[in-house]
Amino acid sequence: MRVSHDVTPSTDSPFRSEPTARDQAPQFVLPLVVRIEKAAPPARTDALETAARAVLVLLADERSAGDGEWAEVVRDWQDARIRKVVRRARGAEWRRAEALPGITVTGKSAEVRVFPPVPLDGWPKELARLQVSGTDLDDPEPPAAADPAAPVLWLSPDLDMSAGKAMAQAGHGAQLAWWELSAEERAAWRDAGFPLAVRTAAPGRWAELTTSGLPLVRDAGFTEIAPGSCTVVADHPALR
């Protein structure tokens, strides 16, 4: 099973899942690897939040901009479908993944390493051998209510997604918010350490969110859920 998801930015509004001109460009994928040790797996919500932050950290990294060493591949990735694949690692697998160029982002219990985008058929062997399945995680305790003054990535209450799928979707939501922010707003978010929460919306609230005009992720339907399903709304205070 491959966990892969597509979104399109606002210039291709309305984040449609049907074919677009972006499908004609060379396709890349953003690899995310979550550390899941048998004895101490991360909490689900923390893993989702850490994955979303990892995407933002890569986008904000100086190597991803201008003449940075990752800038060309990041541009190529964003010019095509925005794909993310989440894989898991532990022990020696994790150590090999950490040896590759990338950024490790740490949450309360989760560690997620994000790598510069790679061609769909050009994965480094150290990452290609990692498993996608087995990313099901639980929260030991229900997450606390989200701070309304901070960005919240609201998950659909109508969809049952694996942790890996939800991690990629949260990353999509964070990325859509990033695209919509001004340079000053991006800098403020970055300088604050990219605070954010990932929560599942109440059904009534979800209906409001999906018609609010906030950035909305629609899944391409390659895995787990139907094409065009609304998965995440990015509720950043600056975009309300």
TrEMBL record:
<dbReference type="Pfam" id="PF01981">
    <property type="entry name" value="PTH2"/>
</dbReference>
<protein>
    <recommendedName>
        <fullName>peptidyl-tRNA hydrolase</fullName>
        <ecNumber>3.1.1.29</ecNumber>
    </recommendedName>
</protein>
<feature type="region of interest" description="Disordered">
    <location>
        <begin position="1"/>
        <end position="21"/>
    </location>
</feature>
<dbReference type="GO" id="GO:0004045">
    <property type="term" value="F:peptidyl-tRNA hydrolase activity"/>
</dbReference>
<keyword id="KW-0378">Hydrolase</keyword>
<dbReference type="InterPro" id="IPR023476">
    <property type="entry name" value="Pep_tRNA_hydro_II_dom_sf"/>
</dbReference>
<dbReference type="InterPro" id="IPR002833">
    <property type="entry name" value="PTH2"/>
</dbReference>
